[in-house]
């Protein structure tokens, strides 16, 4: 890191944000990683309300994707705490062990588990800031998703004896990520139609904001339009915590939405073509997530997040291609 980049990194970190991320990671562990992620979805709705009312993006930068409910803080803290608890035999294998990210860990009655969440929360905050500072790549990837992915790898290295990368061609039983969407016919269908759903929402929101809102408000809404379908998918994760097999689609909806919005000017503002592009990238995200599941999830005993592993490289492809073609 050059001296200039090092200075930018330091300037991007606030003491307030640093301290707040400790609480974010702790809270994510206390309520469970998946519950924390569901609250990310709710926070996004709050962020849009704040943006429409004031033109401020604080709801996105602090609440939804910052030190409060940012997945790199709260969700990642919960994931690491589950891995730690399993290593201490406080989460048993018959309930999922370190891959059980549904259970609120405060119920274990061990404060050290929650403190691990706090440590990984502040670590995620710092790591995301560092990734965002990388020349070109930092602005052409999803630094939050990449941080979630890396944090899961670090947690496995720290608290598990299984390798972070171990290809499993045919996962069986409880080793599987999501048995109801692991076949190509399942995840590609979900990717296509979730992509259509997400792209349509983002295009409609961006178009509405551009033509009806003040420029300051419109800029914030358009910059974050892909987050609305992501929020809807994230809220569905609450249902998984009850053991109900709902589709996991947030990686599909956000990638489709981002692709549709970014390629819209490239295709001459043809909304129909942009929708098709969204469908394609929804399917790509679904495929990449299942690949990551076989590579990082199915062969381990802690959670390394397949959707996060799909979001960051797909974002880089979308932003890279759209900037070159645009």
UniProtKB/TrEMBL annotation:
Residues 12-160, 221-322 form the DUF7973 domain. It comes from the Bacteria. The chain crosses the membrane at residues 6-29, 36-54, 60-84, 105-127, 133-155, 187-208, 228-248, 269-289, 309-325. Signal peptide: none annotated. The keyword DNA damage does not apply. Keywords: Membrane, Transmembrane, Transmembrane helix. InterPro entries: DUF7973. This is DUF7973 domain-containing protein. It comes from Mobiluncus mulieris.
């Amino acid at each position: 890191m050059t001296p200039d980049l090092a200075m930018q990194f330091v300037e991007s970190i606030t003491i307030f944000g640093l301290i707040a991320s400790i609480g974010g990671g702790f809270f994510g562990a206390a309520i469970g990683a998946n519950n924390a992620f569901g609250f990310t979805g709710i926070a996004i709705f709050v962020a849009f309300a704040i943006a429409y009312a004031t033109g401020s993006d604080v709801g996105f930068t602090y609440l939804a994707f910052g030190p409060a409910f940012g997945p790199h803080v709260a969700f990642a803290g919960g994931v690491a705490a589950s891995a730690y608890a399993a290593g201490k035999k406080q989460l048993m294998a018959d309930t999922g062990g370190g891959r059980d990210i549904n259970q609120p860990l405060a119920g274990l009655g061990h404060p050290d588990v929650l403190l691990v969440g706090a440590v990984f929360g502040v670590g995620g905050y710092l790591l995301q800031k560092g990734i965002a500072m990388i020349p070109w790549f930092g602005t052409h990837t999803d630094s939050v998703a990449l941080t979630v992915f890396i944090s899961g790898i670090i947690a496995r290295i720290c608290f598990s004896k299984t390798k972070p990368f171990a290809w499993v061609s045919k996962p069986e039983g409880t080793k599987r990520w999501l048995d109801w969407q692991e076949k190509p016919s399942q995840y590609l269908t979900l990717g296509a139609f979730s992509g259509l759903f997400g792209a349509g929402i983002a295009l409609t929101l961006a178009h509405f904001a551009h033509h009806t809102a003040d420029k300051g408000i419109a800029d914030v809404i358009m910059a974050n339009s892909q987050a609305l379908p992501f929020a809807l998918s994230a809220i569905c994760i609450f249902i998984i915590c009850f053991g109900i097999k709902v589709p996991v689609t947030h990686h599909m909806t956000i990638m489709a939405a981002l692709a549709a919005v970014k390629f819209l000017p490239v295709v001459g503002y043809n909304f129909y073509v942009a929708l098709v592009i969204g469908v394609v990238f929804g399917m790509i995200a679904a495929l990449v997530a299942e690949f990551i599941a076989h590579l990082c999830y199915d062969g381990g005993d802690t959670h390394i997040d397949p959707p996060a592993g799909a979001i960051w490289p797909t974002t880089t492809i979308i932003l890279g291609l759209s900037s070159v073609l645009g």
